[in-house]
Design brief:
Length: about 60
């Protein structure tokens, strides 16, 4: 099963387990496509997860 099949399964069932299966396949496929063998930095996921303006939480 590839990431697209896993995503379509999740869309049809709405199951948390199906979503977790999708994310594990997607993360593995993304890591396999990495040309330098290193995991992408957090900045590499900004457009995918919509967090480009995340300022984080600061405790004073």
């Amino acid at each position: 099963m590839d990431a697209l099949d896993a995503w379509n399964t999740f869309l049809s069932t709405g199951s948390v387990l199906d979503y977790l299966a999708y994310t594990s396949i997607h993360d593995k496929e993304t890591a396999d496509k990495s040309s330098d063998g290193e995991e992408p930095s957090e900045d590499g996921y900004e457009s995918e997860h919509g967090r480009s303006d995340n300022q984080g939480t600061k405790y004073w």
